[in-house]
Amino acid sequence: MTIRPTQVSLLFCVLLIAATVAAGQSTANSPATGASSDDVAKEIGMLRQSVQSLDATLSDIADKLIPVFNKAKDAAAETQGRISSSFTLLAQAEQRAETMRRQLLELIEKETLYRTRITQLDEDMRPENVERALNPYGTTRTAEIRDTRRRVLETERRGVTNLLTLTTESRVRLEEEVRQADALVLRLRQRLNPMIEKEIDKLTPQP
Q1: DSSP letter at 136?
Q2: Which of 99, 109, 95 shows the shortest CA–CA distance to 171?
Q3: Residue 106: band (very low, low, confident or very high) from pLDDT cuts 50, 70, 90
């Protein structure tokens, strides 16, 4: 059972009112005039005893309720700590996933560029295109230059192909890492949302 501070305040008020009423009744039962000093002293003593009894009762209630309040306060602080930690983890996971997605896009763009370059090199290495590229020079060493041109293109193609292979392998690995990062973000959200809903329910007045 959860005891709210307003309930404790109400209980204190009830006890105080009860003591006051009891004291008033005791005073009302004595004669309004002609009361002896002994009677007045007796009434004061009874009132003092009532106040002392009320103080003792309130102290006993406070001793019992303070640990309850402290326990509830500690539980609330622990819950807020878990929510704060979950928010931090979620923000870090989302940032990591977003960074990895940007890296993945960059790798995809590089793959596209490498594939385009390989296609262009294949086209340039066709015999008629090699011959056409040498025509403006008008040299008599056509065969030698043709072979040199072809070797240059083949060397570049091998280099670009190697880059494409490495980029593709990196892209495949990164795609898997992005899936894992997105899965982690989803798990953190599923863990955090119920805690937030529970705290919202505490703030919502019960009908």
Answers
A1: G
A2: 109
A3: very high
Per-residue pLDDT tens over the stretch 46-66:
777 777 777 677 666 766 666
Residue 174 reports pLDDT greater than 90: yes
Query: For residue 2, is it left (φ>0), alpha (ψ between -120 and 50) or beta?
Result: beta
Domain residues of the chain, as ranges? 5-22+42-203
Q: Which one, of 56, 66, 67, lies nearest residue 15 by Cα?
A: 56
Q: pTM for the full model?
A: 0.57
Please tell me what DSSP assigns to residue 31.
-
DSSP code, position 4: P
Selection from 114, 122, 121, 119 nearest residue 167 by Cα = 114
Taking the C-alpha atoms of residue 23 and residue 39, their distance in angstroms, rounded to an integer, is 14
In this structure, what is the dihedral angle of CA atoms 28, 31, 35, 41, given to the nearest 10 degrees? -30
CB 114 within 8 A of CB 163: yes
DSSP string spanning 35-53? --HHHHHHHHHHHHHHHHH
User: Among 194, 127, 190, 117, which Cα is nearest to 157's?
Assistant: 117
pLDDT surpassing 70 at residue 22: no
User: What contacts 185, CB < 8 A, 6 or more positions away?
Assistant: 90, 93, 94, 97
